[in-house]
Design goal:
single chain; 37% strand; mainly beta; 14-stranded parallel beta sheet
């Protein structure tokens, strides 16, 4: 009887081993001169959790699919070229790592979202230290959790028209993503989030994209910190989202007829803290935003530093510096449900008899000409005229047209950010 029990245990153990496969993961090596020359063959032959090392060379095998947990490591920056047949590398399994490749050769299409690296319904995928060249979408992730996109260079085609461009790093219906230390340039949107929650975008550089450096919609509880957005059609557009934090980002030289560093459109509960808005057509545009905390930012050398629409409510602006802007602020109405206190305005000409660092008289940041220009944009050609300056001075002495409730009650006498040229 005891022997039968032991035999049953051995049989059960053998069944488990057969079902789970090898106990030790295997490492495969693919190379032009090796035993395994085709990457597709290695991907089809490897067992779950194996590692595939791919040696330097060019692998032109059409669309490749990773359908089991694997680690794919490029040695010497090998090239995976899709030959413009569709996607290049498609991941449909969890726990996959792709690192160290040059990926190129998607099919350009206005029907299919062809991508250099595409992740579909796969959790815990890591895309690390790759170069993606001349792809339609470079990295496209959908319906996935805990994706890491880090250290990649995503390089589009600067000569391609916008209708034949797609996004550099594109996430749709994802959560827990980390997008860190990437460079994305010459795409339509450098980084695009839609229905992406509880995710983080840190230390990326998004530049020279034809539409937005960063564009996200319906994406809640996300943080964006220490990123650079420069020379894009527009810097960053934040739409229809809530509980968003943006800290220590730089919005620089995003210029055009309708361009801005940062657009907040229908946003609730947003923190804009310690960012730099420099040399943009409009530094920040706030439209239909509720409960914005705008603290410690620098607005310098912009056309309009801040455009605050009347449909924005309960915004609090403190500790910001407004330096060398054509217009510090404009509005399309009377946004009385917002407060300004303790900001620095280089146009402030008040006094501080108590020597406490704040002016003794309030400052009204909206000039008469800013109000006129909001209604008649073509009047901007007169912005440097003597008549405009005289009208603004008269309005400051006897306010009549500027919003009466819009003022900084404690303007700072010195910038909290110092006097250095940023």
């Amino acid at each position: 009887m005891t022997g039968n029990r032991a035999g049953h245990r051995v049989a059960a153990l053998l069944l488990v081993l057969w079902a789970t496969g090898p106990l030790v993961a295997r490492t495969w090596t693919v190379g032009p001169d090796g035993v395994h020359k085709k990457l597709a063959v290695a991907l089809a032959s490897a067992e779950p959790h194996d590692t595939i090392r791919v040696l330097q060379g060019t692998y032109s095998e059409g669309t490749l699919t990773i359908d089991r947990p694997l680690t794919l490591i490029g040695i010497g920056r090998p090239v995976i070229d899709g030959g413009r047949q569709g996607d290049v590398l498609v991941i449909t399994a969890p726990d996959v790592t792709v690192q160290g490749f040059v990926v190129r050769g998607t099919l350009l299409s206005n029907i299919d979202d062809n991508a250099g690296i595409k992740v579909k319904k796969s959790d815990n995928v890591k895309i690390l230290d790759n170069v993606l060249e001349h792809c339609f979408f470079a990295i496209h992730v959908s319906n996935s959790r805990n994706t890491v996109v880090a250290g990649n260079s995503v390089l589009g085609d600067p000569d391609e028209i916008e209708t034949r461009q797609a996004n550099g790093i594109h996430l749709w219906r994802c959560s827990g993503a980390e997008v860190v230390d990437n460079v994305s340039q010459d795409h339509r949107d450098g980084i695009y989030f839609e229905f992406v929650t509880d995710s983080h975008v840190r230390r990326n550089k998004s530049m020279r994209n034809s539409r937005y450096g960063l564009h996200f919609m319906f994406s809640h509880r996300d943080t964006y910190s220490d990123n650079l957005f420069t020379e894009n059609g527009a810097g960053v557009a934040v739409m229809y989202s809530k509980e968003v934090e943006m800290r220590r980002n730089r919005f620089i030289s995003n210029r055009g007829a309708s361009s801005y560093g940062l657009l907040l459109k229908e946003i609730n509960d947003v923190v804009i803290d310690s960012n730099q808005f420099i040399n943009n057509t409009t530094g920040m545009l706030v439209d239909g935003c509720n409960r914005a905390e705008v603290n410690g930012n620098i607005f310098q050398a912009n056309g309009w530093a801040l455009r605050l629409f009347a449909n924005a409510t309960d915004g609090r602006f403190t500790g910001n510096s407004f330096i060398g802007n054509t217009f510090d602020m404009s509005t399309n109405g009377n946004p009385v449900y917002n407060s300004f206190s303790g900001n620095y305005w280089d146009r402030y000409q008040g006094y501080d008899l108590e020597h406490d660092g704040t002016g003794d008289v309030p400052f009204r940041p909206v000039s008469l000409f800013a109000m006129v220009n909001e209604r008649m944009p073509y009047a901007v050609v007169l912005s440097r005229s003597l008549l405009t300056q005289l009208l603004d001075r008269a309005e400051r002495l006897v306010p009549s047209m500027t919003p009466p409730g819009l003022e900084d009650d404690k303007p700072l006498m010195r910038s909290p950010h110092g006097t250095r040229n940023l």
